[in-house]
Amino acid sequence: MKNRNCDHCSTEDKKKKNYLCDEIAASDGLPLRCCHRGTFDKLEYLKYYLSIFSKAMKKKFANRIFIDLFSGPGLCADRESGEIRDGSSLLALKLADPFTHYIFVDTMKKTHEILKNRRDSRLDRMNIRPHVDLYNLDANKDIESILKRIPEKNSISVAFIDPNDLGIEYETLRKLAEFPSLDLIINFSISDLKRNLQTYSEHNEKADKFFGCPDWPKRDDEWLPFYQRKLKSLDFLAVESNLEPKVKIKTKTGADIYYLIYASKNKLGLKFWRETKKKFLPRDIIPY
To answer: What are the 10-residue block averages of pLDDT along the chain, 288 residues in total?
Structure first.
C-alpha cells in the first residue's frame, strides 16, 4: 500500500532526491524510484517491443545491444498504490531472448550504485551471462565515450531515452545516428514544453538543445512534427507518422505528460513498434 508520507512529498522534494523514494520499501532494502501510474504503462510498451525485437534479431545479429541512457535505480514504485515493478533496465534483463550486451547510464552517483547492486543480484539468477556495463556518466556530455563501448561488427541496437524532462540533446541523437543499425524510443516531454514554454522561448537553451536549433516552433501542435522531421534528417527513415496514433502517457486526470516516439533505420523496426501499439491502443483508432 501507499506510504502515507507520500502525501507530504512535493514535486520539488522528488526532484531534489532524483525521484528516489525511501518511504516505500523494496525487498532488497535499497531505494527505488517514485513514479506515477503512467510509468507502468510505458514499461509495458517497452517490454512488449523489446520482446518482439530481441526474438526476431536473435539469429540475425551476433551482437544485440540495449542502451538505457537514463537508467534509474532498476525498480520503481507507483506513488498512488505502492506497487513495485522492474524499471526499464531490469525489465530488459528479464526478456525470454535477452540482448547480448546492455549499457546502463545514469548521471547520479547514488542511482548508479543502486542499479549496480541490483544488476549483480539479477545476473546471479540468470542462466546466461550477457555483458552488462554500467556508467556513471552524463548521457549528453559523455556520449562519445559511451558509444565507444558498443560493438560495431554484426550488431544492432535499441536506445531507450527516458529523461524526466527535455533532457536529451539533439546532438546526442546525431552521435547515435552514426551507427547503421539502431532504433530509438524517446520520451518526448510535452508537459515540460507546455509548462516552461515562456522560459524556454526567452532565455533558456534547454529546448534549443533538445530540438537542435533556436528556431523551433512555438505552437504545441507543431512541436512533434518538427522533431520527427529532425529525426529523419539524421537518416532515421522509419519514423512513425504524426498522423498515426501516438503512445501517450497521461496523468490520472487525463493530461498528456509525454509521448513515446519511435525512429529506426529500418522499416522492420517500425513494423515492430506498430505491432506494439496495436497490442495496447484501442482497436478503433488503429488504422493499420
So the answer is: 54 68 83 89 96 95 96 91 93 94 96 94 81 96 94 92 95 94 96 94 91 94 96 94 90 90 94 94 57
pTM (2 d.p.):
0.92
159 burial class (0-12, 13-18, 19+ CB within 10 angstroms)? buried
Amino acid symbol at 268 = L
| Nearest in space to 132 (alpha carbons), one of 196, 65, 213, 61 | 65
Locate the domains of the chain by residue range: 36-285
Contact 261, 186 (CB under 8 A): yes
Architecture of the 36-285 domain: 3-Layer(aba) Sandwich (3.40)
